[in-house]
Amino acid sequence: MITILEDTINGILMGSIYGLMALGLTVIFGVLKVINFAHGSLLMVGMYVAYWAVQLTGLHPYLALILVVPVMYLFGYYLQDIVIKPIYKAEKQVREPITVIIVTTGVWYILDNLSLLVFTPQYRSLPDNPLRGKMIEIGSMLISVPKLWGAVTAVLTAAAIYWFLQKTRMGRAIRATSLDREAASLMGIRQYSIYNITFGIGTAAAGVAGVTIVPFFNVFPTVGVLFDIKCFIIVVLGGLGSIGGAILGGIIIGIIESVGPQFMAATWTEAIVYGLFLIFLFVRPSGLFGVKYDW
Q1: What are 114-173's pLDDT values in tens digits?
Q2: What is the model's pLDDT at position 150?
Q3: Fewest CB atoms less than 10 Å from the CB: which of 61, 154, 210, 253?
């Protein structure tokens, strides 16, 4: 029983980090109405930025956020402005331009191969990592400290983005654009600027996720592929465009992956995750908190 409780707690912590990984994906979809297939690669870029920020400055892994967040925000902002915005301008009458999906897939391959060229296939980890292997003992249970900090960061990031979208003037402009970009434009909101800002926020969220996993996970050029599909599953479970749904969806996946191996082979837990994904697609495609007829 203690083992199951320990696995459940660690599953919730890791699941919260999964939710943080998917948070940027769901924010971008909520406004741009397209799936960003380069999201895993943006997560990989965030991990490299976090790794080199710690290596070159000697900062604590989590203090690297002060460098990673603005760098990743600007990277996402200009990626949207230079690469994706021309497609929206060329296809103004299309609600969800399929071309954007194709372009983000191209960005995925370019980023992965460019990082492979620059950084080589070498696996990297922080050599002087103060969080490595640290555990909290609660009775006979062991709770991972890096995952605990990651879960706290995930919840705080989700709360900050939710507050920003609900309480600020820019956040209201973003929500207005997500509901009806034509009407928002008539009200004086510059929709392409909103797209740039939203993509920057989503990319910055991926950077925060990168910071949270660098203390206990290796960095390498194709690391984003390991989490990319998982992020899509989480977004579908939680609801496309739902911030709270992303965190909850991640926790569901984390618990299944952590507790499942106690009762079955680990490979079966993956089958359960994908089976749950298919069930939601057929029974409730809007997810737990998604709007049924959003567009």
Answers
A1: 999 999 999 998 887 777 778 888 877 888 888 999 999 999 999 999 999 999 999 999
A2: 92
A3: 61
Average pLDDT over residues 271-289: 84
Handedness of CA 233, 179, 101, 39 (dihedral sign): negative
The more confidently predicted of residues 132 and 66 is 66
Residue 203's pLDDT is: 95
How does residue 292 score in pLDDT terms, banded at 50, 70 and 90?
low
Between vectors from CA 262 to CA 261 and to CA 266, what angle results, nearest 5°?
10
d(CA 294, CA 219): 37
The residues, ordered by sequence, that sit 6+ positions from 43 with a Cβ below 8 Å of its Cβ are: 21, 206, 209, 210, 223, 224, 227, 228, 231
Helix orientation angle between 266-283 and 223-238, rounded to the nearest 10 degrees: 40
**Cα separations (Å) of 211 from 69, 121, 164?**
9, 20, 21
264: left (phi over 0), alpha (psi -120 to 50) or beta: beta
pTM score, two decimals?
0.91
CATH topology of domain 2-283: ABC transporter involved in vitamin B12 uptake, BtuC (1.10.3470)
Residue corresponding to tokens 């290596």: 55
- 290, 225, 216: which is closest to 14 by C-alpha? 216
Contact 234, 246 (CB under 8 A): yes
Task: Give the N- to C-terminal CA distance of the chain in Å, as an integer.
Answer: 46
Report the distance separating Cα 260 and Cα 272, nearest Å: 9
Per domain, the residue ranges of the chain are 2-283
- DSSP-assigned letter for residue 135: E
Give the confidence band of 93 by pLDDT, cuts at 50, 70, 90: low
Single-letter code of the amino acid located at 280: F
Closest CA to 239 of 294, 197, 196, 201: 294
